Structures are given as C-alpha cells and as structure tokens.
Amino acid sequence: MKLFRQLGSYMMLGAKAHAQWEIDVSTTILKSKKRLLTLAFLTAPVLLIGIVFADEIGGALPHLLGGKTAYSPAYYSTFIFLVSIAIGVGAGLITGCIGAGGGFIIAPALMSAGIKGILAVGTDLFHIFAKAIMGSVIHRKLGNVSVPLAVVFLIGAMVGATAGGLVNRALFEVNPVLSDAFITIVYSLMLGFLGLYAMVDYLKSLSAAKKTAPKGTAAHHAKVEGAEMGNLPRKLQGVKIPPMVKFDYDLIPGGRSISWVFLVASGALVGLAAGIMGVGGGFLTFPIFVYMLGVSSMTTVGTDIFQIVFTAGYASITQYAVYGFIFYTMAMGMLLGSLLGIQIGAMSTKVVAGITIRGFYAMAVLAGFVNRIFALPSKLSALEVIPLSKQAGNLLNTIGIWAFFIVIGGFSVWVIGTFLTNIRKLKGEEVH
Fold first, then answer.
1. What local confidence, expressed as pLDDT, does residue 422 receive?
2. CB-CB neighbours of 20 under 10 Å
3. What whole-number distance in Å separates Cα of residue 123 and Cα of residue 240?
4. Cα(67)–Cα(71) distance, rounded to whole angstroms?
5. Predicted pLDDT of residue 428
6. In this structure, what DSSP letter does residue 317 have?
7. How many CB atoms sit inside 10 A of residue 82's CB?
8. Is 272 helix (H, G, I), strand (E, B) or coil?
9. Which residues of the chain, if any, have pLDDT below 50?
10. DSSP conformational letter for 103
11. Dihedral angle, C-alpha 217, 218, 224, 226, nearest 10 °
12. Measured between alpha carbons, how far is 315 from 274 in angstroms, rounded to an integer?
C-alpha cells in the first residue's frame, strides 16, 4: 500500500510537471505573431484542400500513406478535423485547469472516434513533437537540466522507443485488432492505476484535517525537493559500474552520481512507454528519477521536459511517420484545440476551488479507464480469446464511449461555462 501511494504520488507530480510544460508552450505560441502565422500556414492549406478534395485524396492515397482502405478513417474529412479540435480542447482544458497532463485521454478519445490504435499513438506523438518545436521553450528550463544525465538517458529512451514502435507495428501486421487490443490493455492498466490513486487521494483530501498538509502542497513538495533519499536510490547510487554520471551539484556538495547502466535502463523503459502509448513518457520519468535513482525533483523536471521533446520527435518520425502511421490533419487539429483549451483551463483555475479540480481529474482519468476496459471485450472476442456475441461486445463498447465522452464533455462544458460567467472578474484581475 505504501508503494502504491508513493508511486501514485510521484506519477501525479510527473503529470503536473508535464502540464506546466504544456502551459508554457501554449503561452509561448499564442504570444508570438510569428508562431501563430506559422501555425496558420501549416493548417489552412490542409483544411482548404481537404474540404474540396477529401474523397479524391482519400481514394488516391496508397495503403502506406493511409488511404481509405488502409487505416480507416485516416483519410481527410472536415468532420474528422473538427473532432480532432474537440479532442484537443478537452485535453487542453484538463491540462490547463487541473494542472496535470490531459494527454492521457487523447489516444482513448481517438480510438473511440474510430481511429486505429497504432494511428492514434503515432498521431499523439507527432502532436506532442509539433507543439514542442513550435513552442521552443527548452532554453527556459536548461538551468535545471543535467546534460550528461539527459544524454545518457536519451540513449536508452531511443532504444526503448524503437522497441515500442517495432512491437506496435509487428502486432498491427499480424492483426490490426490484436494491435488495438494490446494498446487498449496497456492504457487500461495505466489509467486504472493512476485513476484509482487520484480518486483515493481526492477522497482523503475531503476528510483531511485543516492542520494536515495534504499531498500536492508546498509542504509535501519540500520532502521531494530535499536532499533525503530512500533506500533504493542509495543502493543504486552505491553500485559503481563506470562510467558514473554526476548531477545535482547545486543540492549536494560534490553532487551525486549514478552508473550509466541504470540511466540507460530507465530511459529504455520511458521510451518503450512513449513508443507504445504515444504520451511522451513524462509521467514515468518523475517517479523513476526521484523514487528510484535519487535525482532531485528540480533536475528531474528539467530533464523530463528535455527528454520529451527528443523522445517524441524520434519516435514519431522514425517509428510512425515513415510507415504512414500519423494522421497529420488530426494532429494539427489537436494542436489548435489544445492551445485554446489550455488557456481557458488555466484562467479558470482562478475561480475554481482546488479540491473540485482534483475531483474532476480523478473522474477524467477513470472515465478513460472505463472507456478502454469496456472496449476490450469486443476486441478479445474478435480474436477468439473469450466467447462473446458481437452484439454484447458492441453494447459494452458503446457504453464505454458514451461514459467517456459524457464525463469529458461535461467537464469541458463546465470549465468553459465557468470561464465565460467569470470573464469580467478574470479581466479585472489582469488589469490589477
């Protein structure tokens, strides 16, 4: 139980660090006329061409590039573009309002909209990479990055991302349903764990005494920031397999050091998660660095942001783009939607109680879990793993889809409504 609480806590901190990076990126893009013009230049031609020649383009594309008969519905349509914007808005609202990564819902949302799992993963990775490149906020965090730590970690991350891409593509070649089932199982496990922890944490915070510093406050974070380490980090840092990588000079006189073996292994795990799930792997970097390797949270946050950009870029291009597993029009739609959603969500936090936000995050993650777990029976039935009628499988899948979009849609309407009804108050705060 203690391990569950610790791991869940560090995963939440990792999700929050990634969310802050997304907010920084969004703000950087929207405040720059040059970046906005670049975004318009990339998006407008695709949208206009798609409206006029959607059917012709879809029919003419070869299988490798996502024609209508390949990874349906990978071909372009205005409806799909609007759906991608809506998904981006929903994920952005979660990121901006809750302050934790809304990217967890993107792949489940895309798969619920009918996108093949492997295409959803590739598109999500490309969307993260495009946002990072356009935002270009890495330099702001470089002071918190240990370059040797990041470089060695990235060696493992690229190996892991390659393995993740190979696994997804191999399963897709064997059977597209098998690929979807595998991605669905992975998401079910991850969302189930994180959602359960978030809900338990939320319920505890409701009954916690005011004198107790709840998790997520400065008092809790101070423990993470301190120089203390648990038994596992001490043991790993005590293993002297050269070369040793040094870091945290500002925190400890002479710094700390750890063998490259553990960094490469950690990077491989994070890269594998990114390659399979398409989420950048940031939610794992924090618990691994802090809880296992003994890296300070300040250095971890900077290194996490650094690795996300390169891991997502490498995985999206080398493992998915070159094989035709990226839905570019949808990636651009998600980028547009998330930029808007993040800003609205971030401003809404000024007029929404923190405890309410935490409750909504738990509900959003659990909605993603319900969505994937209810989609699984029909896929296992199609693979003849379990006996289930097609009608029953479709019914469960439909229930999961409706539950997911009702929760996310309801949350989105509530946040946007809160923003609009308090817009005068928010403007007043900006003036003062």
1. 77
2. 18
3. 41
4. 7
5. 63
6. I
7. 12
8. helix
9. 61-74, 139, 209-211, 213-227, 431-432
10. G
11. -160
12. 8
Positive or negative CA dihedral for 157, 158, 164, 167? negative
Tokens at residue 343, please?
A: 């800003």
Among 430, 431, 76, 12, CA closest to 220: 12
Contacts with 155 (C-beta within 8 Å, 6 or more apart), sequence order: 264, 267
Q: Give CA 109 to chain center in angstroms.
A: 12
Phi-psi region of 338 (alpha: psi -120 to 50; beta: other; left: phi over 0): alpha
Q: Provide the residue type at 151 as one letter.
A: V
The pair phi, psi for residue 431, each rounded to 5°, is: -65, -45
β-sheet bridge partners, residue 372: none
Cα-Cα-Cα-Cα dihedral sign, residues 377, 378, 384, 387: positive
Q: Which of 317, 266, 264, 272 is nearest to 164 (CA)?
A: 272
Q: Under 8 Å CB-to-CB from 261, ≥6 apart: which residues?
A: 239, 241
HSE-up (13 A, CA, CB side) for residue 179: 25
Q: Which residue has the tokens 């338990």?
A: 200
User: For position 68, what pLDDT does the model report?
Assistant: 41
The answer to whether 87 and 409 have CB atoms below 8 angstroms apart is no
Q: What are the Cα distances from residue 165, in Å, to 124, 158, 318, 321?
A: 13, 10, 9, 11
Three-class SS of residue 254?
coil
- Partners of 247 in beta bridges: 256
Mean pLDDT for the chain?
Answer: 77
pTM assigned to the model: 0.80
* Strand ranges inside 183-254, DSSP E: 244-247
Peptide bond into 73 cis (omega under 30): yes
Tokens matching residue 141 = 């965090």
- CA pair distance 188, 15, nearest whole angstrom: 17
- Name 335's Cβ contacts closer than 8 Å, sequence gap at least 6: 39, 88, 127, 130, 131, 134
Amino acid, res. 320: Y
Tokens of 82: 């609007």
pLDDT of residue 164: 93
Q: How far apart are CA 196 and CA 362, in angstroms?
A: 8
